[in-house]
Amino acid sequence: MKLSLDIAEASPPGWIKAVMDDFDAFLRDHADCERKASAMALSMVAKYPDRTAILPDLIDTALEELEHFKLVYQIMEMRGVQLPASMPEDPYIRALMALMKTPVLPRFLDRLLVASLVEMRGAERFRLVEEALEDPELKRFYKMLWTSEAKHGNIYVKMALQYFDEKEVYDRLRWWIEQEGRIIASLPLRAALH
Predict the structure, then answer these.
(1) Residue 158 falls within a domain, yes or no?
(2) pLDDT in tens, 23-35
(3) Number of independent structural domains in the chain
(4) Dihedral angle sign, alpha carbons of residues 72, 84, 38, 154
(5) What is the pTM of this model?
(6) In whole angstroms, what separates CA 93 from the centre of its chain?
């Protein structure tokens, strides 16, 4: 069984041009996204400590995202790029969060499915970055990242299936995929992951 579903809307071609035109800005945003992804997985550990079937996967994901942050930071150091003083709000994440249900149980499902979608979008975009890069080391790094993000996308759906009916999970995931496609198409192009 395929755990995640494909994203509905491909990234616009101008997105990769924006990234390649200001790769240092992209690295700063990428580092922020890895920190936030790690923090998000850990926040679910704190919010749902009774969901013991998924705690090991959440902890492993948080650690892997933190390791990705460390690796991005090392690339930034080599290029003389500093971390930003603050992490700006991500308009993509803000738009997704605004659509989440508020009752406790439906919100838990939405958090898992949105995390899956964010990871799948990351996989798509890191693959575009890997294909556009010429530096062999950076190409290897971004190939490793897009395969890891795709795996994380599957893991979050697998977590949802631990606690919710399969039909409910996939029906809601399809709805989220449509919403995510609409959101990604509406955002301005910038040298950022989202």
Answers:
(1) yes
(2) 999 999 999 999 9
(3) 1
(4) negative
(5) 0.94
(6) 9
